[in-house]
Amino acid sequence: MSAPAVLVLEDGTVYHGEGFGASGTAFGEAVFTTGMTGYQETLTDPSYRRQVVVATAPQIGNTGWVAGSGSADGAGYGVSDDESGAIWVAGFVVRDLAPRPSNWRATSSLPEEMARQGIVGIAGVDTRALTRRLRTAGAMRCGIFAGDQVGTPELTVAAMLEQVRAQPSMAGADLTGEVSTEAGHVIPADGTERFAVAAIDLGIKANTPRMLAARGIRTHVLPATTTIEQIRALGVDGVFLSNGPGDPATADAMVALTRDVLTAGIPLFGICFGNQILGRALGFGTFKLKFGHRGINQPVRDHATGRVLVTAHNHGFAVDAPIDRVSDTEFGRVQVAFSCLNDGVVEGLECLDRQAFSVQFHPEAAAGPHDAGYLFDRFVELMATGAAAGPAASTKSATGKVSA
Ligand SMILES: NC(=O)CC[C@H](N)C(=O)O
Description:
The chain contains 10 helices and 22 strands. It is α/β, with parallel strands linked by helices. It folds into 2 domains: 4-165, 3-Layer(bba) Sandwich (Glucose Oxidase, domain 1), CATH 3.50.30.20; 176-403, Class I glutamine amidotransferase (GATase) domain (Rossmann fold). The strands form 4 sheets. Strands 10, 11, 12, 13, 14, 15, 16, 17, 18, 19 and 20 form an 11-stranded mixed beta sheet that branches. A 7-stranded mixed beta barrel has the order 1-2-8-6-4-3-9. Strand 1 (4-9) and strand 2 (14-21) form a beta hairpin. 51% of the residues are buried. Bound molecules: glutamine (GLN). Glutamine (GLN) binds at residues 47, 243-246, 272-273, 314-317.
């Protein structure tokens, strides 16, 4: 772990450190996250596809890596902290890598797992200086160069920079096809089933179906290519649009599907990428933020109550909608329901004339905080009063239980 490694930003800034995890080269958009905990959840979040993540927390790796079969036994044994089946970040940048994990649940260490999955990391970087650079100049492309190539005469800074600048930018990146499920799968409700939901997998995290299951919801995790006819045929009570990587401006097919769902009047809930897609379906634009919001300590204001929630964020794009007035859209009146206290960015949308809402932040945040978890209950309320997706699920009892 003492082999030299180099991090090169697209603007020519160079940081030297030590490689950890796999050796080799990693390219992506350099972004920073301010989460003090939850690096495993971050690394396995598909929304980080093609991003090199910089942890501002100074020491990383203390809790090791918690793999598992996923079968809960109530004590934490056998339950993984993974948010998906793989590490999705392109690379990982830390200040101080913990020399050994100290966690009774750990099954291996962070560098071991990164090496196993072929993910390149660099430690020993002045992540305060790097974060200031990214805040000042904006998120930008970068490369981590580790292993035997470092120090060879051919690998000059100019050569590294040339490779970094040859990489595609995150603006315009269409990554849904790289993360969405191919076949789809069903996660049953815990206990008595109340509702069924079609969750469109744009890079869904494991905790979302878990939060739905805990509320008596059966979740059909479906590919991004799912059609409104397939949703209707399932007879679900609601549609969920997941988080996911890439530029929402490229997600035209998802926007079209969302418009079909709104037209059909099926209750809809979207998170993060799902919020951006609902925004576009309602006629709003999206834009790239300078350096984005990533972390688990971001304050948002609930416009309805004035209450402030501390929330988890991971977004580099945002919806362009007026936050101070109700907008008239093709699907009726829409209001911005949440905004970020740090910079006023739109953090949630609510349709006043349709059963649809979405948030830019993460009520499903597995590393916490849990302030926003109640939004899953709001989705349940919508389904209890809403229309189901097709003739197969048209009758509801007073408890909201669907009968064909
Ligand atoms: N977590 C997400 O869903 C991210 C959405 C989108 N890719 C963004 O960066 O804004």
